[in-house]
Specification:
heterodimer; A: 255 residues; alpha/beta; Rossmann fold; 4-stranded antiparallel β-sheet; 10 helices; globular; B: 298 residues; mainly alpha; MetI-like fold; 11 helices
C-alpha cells in the first residue's frame, strides 16, 4: 500500500457488512479540510451506515462488521488496535433526533470536557459559553443554564447537541440528517451554523434534502445500493453530473 | 353482527373485566381492613406476641419483617444491579446470554416454598447458620434476584439508545456512560421497581418458614450490639416475620384471640405493601425530577 493513497481524512476500500449483507461496498473517499461533504442517495443506500462507521459507531452493533481502512493523519481508525473511545473525541456526531442528556443545559456541555480532564469551574464556564456561542444558542439560553435541556424546543435541543459535540474540540463533525426533524426556521439556523463551523472543521453531512446539500456543501457524494456512484464539487454534481444514475436521481426520476 | 355492534360488545366485555379486577382488589382490601383495622393501636404494633393468653401484639414480627427486608435488599441490590446491567449493556446476543436469561426465568418461576427448603438444606444445615435472619435473607435474596435482574435490565433498556450513542460520540468510556448517563435516566424506574420488589419480599412467608424460622427470642430493644443473642439486629437469631406470624396463628395458634390478632396483622401487612406501592410511585417521580432538573414529567 502506498502512502499516496492515504487521504488526510478519508476511507480506503471501506465496506460494512450486516451479517453477510454488504451494506456499504468498498468506498474510497476523502473529506477535505475546512469543507462540508454531503452524502445523498435514496433510503437504504448505505450513506448513514457509512457515516456511522467513520467514528466506529457500528462497533456497538453486534451483527455489523467493518472492513477496510479509515485514515486520519496517517492512522488507521479501523485498526483493531486503535482505541475507539479516544478517537471518538476527535470525531463529533449529531443525529437526526436531538438527544440531549437528561441533565441541565450547562451539564450537557460541561460533561464531556470535565470527563476529559478539564476541572476548573472557570475553564468549564468558558467552554460552555464558547460552545453555545459557536452553536448560535448562547443568547437564547444564557439566563437558564441550570434548567433541564429537555425544556428546550426541538430546534434549540439540536443546536445544544451541536454545542455538546463542539465542547470536546473535535476535528471532524459527522451530521446524520441533523435538520430533518426540525421546522424550516430551525433548519435555516442549523444550516447557517454548518457553513459557519466549516471554517475550523471538516464536516460530513448525510441529508435527504438535495436543496440542503446544494446550500451547505462544497462537495457531494451520491450513494446507491451501497456503492459510491459519484463524488464531485457540489455545483458540478448538481449542474452537470458525469454519471447517468446521479443525473436521474437529482432530476427526481427515482429515489 | 356488523362491525359497530361487535366493537361495542368487545368494548363492553373489556371494560367489564377491567372493572372486575378493580372490584376484586377493592373487595379484598375492604374485607381485610374491615376485619383488622379495629385491632390496630399503638400497643398492638409495639408489644410482643403472646403464646398462651390473649392481648399479644406484633411488635417483634413487624421489626423482623422490616429488618429482614433491609438485609435482603443489601444482598439483592448489588447482585441484581450487576446482573441486570450486564444483561442490558454488555451481553451480546448468543447462546450464553440466552442461557443466562433462561436460568433467570426458571429461577423467577420457582415456588417460594422450594426456595425455602433449599435454604433449609444449604444455609440452615450445611452452612450451619441455623434458623436465622441471615438464612432468611439469603433465601429471600434468591427468591428476589431474578426480579431484580429483570427490573434493572428493563430500566436500562428503556433508556433511549441515542443517549448511549451521544455519550460514545463524546469519547466517554462505556463505564462512564453507564454510571453517569444511563443510570440517572434509568434510576426512577429502577427505584420504583425495587420498592415494588421489596413489597413482594415483605409479604413472603413460605420461603421463610424453614429459614428465618417461626420463633423470635425475647428482644431487648435497648441492646444494639449485633453479637448479643437478644439484640434485635443480631443477624444470627431466629426471626418470625409478620407474614409467617399470620400463617402460624391461623394454622396452629392457641391464643384465644388468634383470629383477631391474625386479622390485625393481615391489615398491617396489607397497609405496608400498599404503602410500598404508593411510595414507589411517588419517589420514582421525585427522583426523576431531581435528576433531569425538569419541572414536568416527560
Amino acid at each position: 500500500m502506498q502512502t499516496s493513497t492515504q487521504p488526510r481524512f478519508g476511507t480506503e476500500e471501506l465496506s460494512v457488512f450486516y451479517g453477510t449483507n454488504e451494506a456499504v461496498k468498498k468506498i474510497n473517499m476523502e473529506f477535505p479540510e475546512k469543507s462540508v461533504t454531503a452524502l445523498i442517495g435514496p433510503s437504504g443506500c448505505g450513506k448513514s451506515t457509512f457515516l456511522r462507521s467513520l467514528n466506529r459507531m457500528n462497533d456497538e452493533i453486534a451483527s455489523a462488521r467493518v472492513a477496510g481502512r479509515i485514515w486520519m493523519d496517517g492512522q488507521d481508525l479501523n485498526d483493531k488496535n486503535t482505541d475507539a473511545v479516544t478517537l471518538r473525541q476527535k470525531i463529533g456526531m449529531v443525529w437526526q433526533r436531538p438527544n440531549p442528556f437528561y441533565k441541565s443545559i450547562y451539564e450537557n456541555i460541561a460533561f464531556g470536557p470535565r470527563y476529559h480532564g478539564t476541572r476548573g469551574k472557570k475553564q468549564l464556564d468558558e467552554i460552555v459559553e464558547q460552545s453555545l456561542r459557536r452553536a448560535a444558542l448562547w443568547d437564547e439560553v444564557k439566563d437558564r443554564l441550570k434548567e433541564s435541556a429537555l425544556s428546550l424546543s426541538g430546534g434549540q435541543q439540536q443546536r445544544l447537541c451541536i454545542a455538546r459535540a463542539l465542547s470536546v474540540s473535535p476535528q471532524i463533525l459527522l451530521l446524520d440528517e441533523p435538520a430533518s426533524a426540525l421546522d424550516p426556521v430551525s433548519t435555516g439556523k442549523v444550516e447557517e451554523l454548518i457553513i459557519e463551523l466549516k471554517k475550523d472543521l471538516r464536516i460530513v453531512i448525510v441529508t435527504h434534502n438535495m436543496q440542503q446539500a446544494a446550500r451547505v456543501s462544497d462537495s457531494t457524494a451520491y450513494f446507491y445500493l451501497g456503492n459510491l456512484i459519484e463524488h464531485d464539487d457540489t455545483t458540478k454534481l448538481f449542474s452537470n453530473p458525469s454519471n447517468q444514475m446521479t443525473q436521474e436521481y437529482i432530476m427526481g426520476r427515482f429515489g | 353482527m356488523n362491525a359497530k355492534t361487535a366493537d361495542k360488545l368487545a368494548t363492553g366485555i373489556i371494560v367489564f373485566f377491567a372493572v372486575l379486577i378493580v372490584a376484586i382488589l377493592a373487595g379484598l382490601l375492604g374485607i381485610i381492613l374491615f376485619r383488622g383495622i379495629a385491632q390496630i393501636d399503638w400497643h398492638f404494633l409495639t408489644s410482643p406476641s403472646q403464646n398462651m393468653k390473649a392481648g399479644g401484639g406484633i411488635g417483634p414480627q413487624l421489626f423482623n419483617s422490616l429488618f429482614l427486608l433491609v438485609l435482603t435488599m443489601i444482598i439483592t441490590i448489588p447482585i441484581g444491579l450487576g446482573g441486570g446491567i450486564y444483561m442490558a449493556e454488555y451481553a451480546r446476543e448468543g447462546k450464553i446470554t440466552a442461557f443466562i436469561r433462561l436460568v433467570v426465568e426458571v429461577l423467577s418461576s420457582f415456588p417460594s416454598i422450594v426456595v425455602g427448603l433449599f435454604g433449609l438444606l444449604l444455609f440452615v444445615n450445611t452452612f450451619d447458620l441455623g434458623y436465622s435472619l441471615l438464612s432468611g435473607a439469603i433465601a429471600l435474596a434468591i427468591f428476589n434476584l431474578p426480579l431484580m435482574v429483570r427490573i434493572t435490565e428493563q430500566s436500562f433498556r428503556a433508556v433511549p439508545r441515542e443517549q448511549k450513542e451521544a455519550g460514545l460520540a463524546l469519547g466517554l468510556s462505556k463505564w462512564k456512560i453507564i454510571t453517569s448517563i444511563l443510570l440517572p435516566v434509568a434510576l426512577p424506574s429502577l427505584i420504583t421497581g425495587t420498592i415494588l420488589a421489596a413489597g413482594r419480599v415483605f409479604g413472603e412467608a413460605a420461603a421463610l418458614l424453614f429459614t428465618s424460622g417461626m420463633t423470635t427470642p425475647p428482644l431487648d430493644f435497648t441492646d444494639w450490639n449485633p453479637l448479643h443473642p437478644r439484640s434485635p439486629i443480631n443477624p444470627l437469631r431466629p426471626a418470625e416475620t409478620l407474614a409467617v406470624h399470620i400463617w402460624k396463628l391461623n394454622s396452629e395458634g392457641v391464643v384465644p384471640d388468634a383470629k383477631q390478632v391474625a386479622a390485625g396483622a393481615s391489615a398491617v401487612l396489607v397497609i405496608m405493601v400498599l404503602l410500598f406501592n404508593l411510595v414507589a410511585r411517588w419517589f420514582g417521580r421525585f427522583v426523576y425530577r431531581k435528576i433531569t432538573a425538569s419541572k414536568r414529567m416527560e
